[in-house]
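Allow me, if you will, to draw on your knowledge of protein folds for a short while. I have a record of one protein: its chain in single-letter code and its fold written as discrete structure tokens. Could you please explain, in whatever detail you think fit, how the structure tokens follow from the sequence? The record follows directly beneath this note:
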Amino acid sequence: MRDVPRSALILGLLGLIPFVFGALISSGLFWANMGDPANGGYPLIMAQDGDLILIRYGTVILSFMSGVLWGFATRGEGALQSTGYALSVIPALWAFFMVSGGPAAMATNLIFGFVGLLALDWHFWRNGMAPPWWMHLRVLLTFIVVACLLTVVF
């Protein structure tokens, strides 16, 4: 991780906050309420809220990563560039078409989307279109994202 630029590492880790927060709520480890329900209090945050945070934010980030890959595609030439452009839209299309159904199904499809994204990251990195440090950062972030999404599945 020493090769990853400090700003990229910090921003990448900060981008995990909604995932971790959603996972804590979804797993029941974080629960806030406004008093005892027996005395008229009500929960402020429930497990379903964590599921929703994870699914919505995961969909946004998966789509965002399509833009990152599009930017990497500009570094290629000829067929490599064309292939890069075509591959770069897959995460956004995956998020659009596959994130449906109940929370567990949506989270499962997001997990597959992020694992697939990691394969695309590797393709762009292997072909010299992503920075040399890219995979170090992406493996770490993907591992944490998938772990967080698993709280919805199980």
Observations:
- The mean pLDDT is 93.
- The two ends are 31 Å apart (CA to CA).
- Helices lie at 6-14, 17-26, 47-73, 78-88, 90-98, 103-126, 134-153.
